[in-house]
């Protein structure tokens, strides 16, 4: 009998089976074969994880520890992640067919999430304000308690670390529920946290499905914060569950990003980023530039060059050194993307290049659609695959209207060499992030999140601090002669 690698829950600094011994298979999407087994949580396992995190918060050293000591431990975890970077990347590439070079990049960004928030909590401790009434008032940012973090499969380690890092840095204890398709790198992160010397219960990993593993966390009154990244529909369910206990939620949800290319753009640069924006990670990116708007005067030229660049991407198995693009992360997801590609022509559009591989694999080639009515599902809904709909426009006002005419509002990109236009259009776009002449670059001090169906709240820098702490105002009398 084949022995498969096993990934358990991490509860109280031990890697354990589920109480009922249940496991599920995790599949390598490139080979379409099972490659590992994972503990499958029931509500009873969630109960164990919550009890562990609760006890660690109420009685353990973590929330009471000096900020420098906590930062040192988090940096030690980051050091271990760097030492094991290849292994962490290999787990993500195996679990979801992410090209290995991209998975390595994700590990580096994950390490940076930990290092950034370790230092941020140490250095951004609060503000003191002298008052005219003869008092001083200051803000204190104390940890909120137990954080339930629920993450998606498209950037398994990076999305999980984006939630875990600020949560624990600010002195909370955390339970992470990774996506069921891609749990391996997050379990390994839990193992490394034990090795780094984290106290028991600070970082618990609970594996399993949305229901019951995730839902057992979001509706529990012992959980003080819920941070979620995933689909907008799931976000609605989670917000409803958390509302029963008035638990604050942070929701990072889907997107349908507009990518606008003006006639005065640097076309080489715009083509480069348009390709990255929709074909990186096979388009399985919330920030994907899935609606591309090209100004009429350069439409034909841009489209020809964009098509050529898309066709030049090296498609292959995730671990080959030159692979830039691989298959989709699961059969279920492939079938979803396929249903959009299959119906392009019946909805009135044309596939300029790409389409399904039709070889039994879960590969959808870099796909460019034109001539699609603006009411078509491919234009309106998040496909979350390597499929872009291209449209043309005449005026700035017209394209701003088109870009904003969506239920989502996560991000937008624009390409222009006109400085005034860059500022004006950025300001008028309905989006949490706007990239001008670039894409995907982030400074972790800035807010990250979305408008409308793309989310609730912002994370990053002080925005994460506001969410993961209970800010308190303390007012001190300084001058006894002055009474308010
Ligand atoms: P998903 O909503 O299906 O699942 C996300 C997580 O939620 C998984 O861990 C899943 O098990 C869990 N879950 C499902 N049902 C649940 C429930 N009832 N209660 C608690 N947990 C539950 O999303 P996905 O398919 O894994 O991820 C893709 C989606 O994520 C896309 O819509 C994408 O745009 C979005 N996303 C957003 C961002 C962002 O920052 N805004 C980043 C990455 C991905």
UniProtKB/TrEMBL annotation:
<dbReference type="InterPro" id="IPR016163">
    <property type="entry name" value="Ald_DH_C"/>
</dbReference>
<dbReference type="InterPro" id="IPR016161">
    <property type="entry name" value="Ald_DH/histidinol_DH"/>
</dbReference>
<keyword id="KW-0175">Coiled coil</keyword>
<dbReference type="GO" id="GO:0016620">
    <property type="term" value="F:oxidoreductase activity, acting on the aldehyde or oxo group of donors, NAD or NADP as acceptor"/>
</dbReference>
<feature type="coiled-coil region">
    <location>
        <begin position="36"/>
        <end position="94"/>
    </location>
</feature>
<dbReference type="InterPro" id="IPR016162">
    <property type="entry name" value="Ald_DH_N"/>
</dbReference>
<dbReference type="InterPro" id="IPR016160">
    <property type="entry name" value="Ald_DH_CS_CYS"/>
</dbReference>
<dbReference type="Pfam" id="PF00171">
    <property type="entry name" value="Aldedh"/>
</dbReference>
<keyword id="KW-0560">Oxidoreductase</keyword>
<comment type="similarity">
    <text>Belongs to the aldehyde dehydrogenase family.</text>
</comment>
<keyword id="KW-0520">NAD</keyword>
<protein>
    <submittedName>
        <fullName>Aldehyde Dehydrogenase</fullName>
    </submittedName>
</protein>
<dbReference type="InterPro" id="IPR015590">
    <property type="entry name" value="Aldehyde_DH_dom"/>
</dbReference>
<feature type="domain" description="Aldehyde dehydrogenase">
    <location>
        <begin position="21"/>
        <end position="474"/>
    </location>
</feature>
């Amino acid at each position: 009998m084949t022995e498969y690698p096993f990934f358990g829950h991490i509860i109280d600094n031990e890697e354990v089976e589920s109480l009922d011994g249940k496991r599920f298979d995790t599949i390598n999407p490139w080979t379409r074969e099972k490659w590992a087994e994972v503990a499958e949580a029931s509500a009873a396992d969630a109960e164990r994880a919550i009890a562990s995190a609760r006890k660690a918060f109420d009685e353990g050293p973590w929330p009471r520890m000096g900020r420098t000591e906590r930062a040192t431990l988090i940096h030690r975890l980051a050091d271990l992640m760097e030492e094991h970077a290849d292994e962490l990347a290999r787990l993500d590439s195996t679990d979801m067919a992410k090209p290995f070079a991209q998975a390595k990049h994700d590990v580096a960004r994950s390490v940076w999430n930990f290092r950034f928030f370790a230092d941020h909590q140490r250095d951004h401790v609060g503000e003191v304000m002298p008052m005219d009434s003869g008092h001083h008032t200051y803000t204190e940012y104390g940890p909120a308690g137990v954080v339930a973090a629920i993450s998606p499969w498209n950037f398994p380690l990076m999305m999980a670390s984006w939630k875990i890092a600020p949560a624990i840095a600010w002195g909370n204890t955390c339970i992470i529920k990774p996506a069921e398709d891609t749990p391996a790198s997050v379990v390994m992160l839990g193992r490394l946290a034990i090795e780094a010397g984290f106290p028991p219960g600070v970082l618990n990993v609970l594996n399993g499905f949305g229901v019951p593993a995730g839902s057992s966390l979001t509706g529990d009154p012992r959980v003080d914060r819920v941070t979620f990244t995933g689909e907008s529909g799931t976000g609605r369910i989670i917000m409803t569950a958390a509302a029963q206990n008035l638990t604050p939620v942070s929701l990072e949800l889907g997107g349908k990003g507009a990518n606008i290319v003006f006639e005065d753009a640097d076309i080489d640069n715009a083509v480069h980023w348009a390709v990255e924006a929709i074909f990186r990670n096979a388009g399985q990116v919330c920030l994907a530039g899935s609606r591309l708007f090209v100004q009429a005067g350069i439409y034909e030229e841009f489209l020809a060059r964009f098509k050529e660049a898309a066709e030049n991407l090296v498609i292959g198995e995730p671990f080959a050194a030159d692979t830039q693009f691989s298959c989709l992360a699961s059969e279920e997801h492939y079938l979803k993307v396929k249903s959009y590609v299959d119906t392009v022509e019946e909805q009135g559009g044309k596939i300029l290049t790409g389409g399904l591989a039709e070889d039994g694999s879960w590969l959808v080639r870099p796909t460019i659609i034109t001539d699609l009515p603006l009411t078509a599902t491919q234009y309106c809904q998040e496909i979350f695959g390597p499929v872009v709909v291209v449209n043309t426009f005449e005026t700035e006002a017209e394209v701003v209207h088109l870009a904003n005419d969506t239920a989502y509002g996560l991000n937008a990109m624009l390409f222009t060499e006109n400085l005034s236009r860059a500022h004006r259009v950025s300001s008028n776009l309905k989006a949490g992030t706007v990239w001008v002449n670039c894409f995907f670059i982030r400074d972790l001090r800035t807010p990250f999140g979305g408008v409308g169906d793309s989310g609730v709240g912002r994370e990053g820098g002080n925005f994460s601090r506001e969410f993961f702490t209970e800010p308190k105002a303390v007012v001190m009398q300084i001058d006894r002669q002055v009474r308010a």
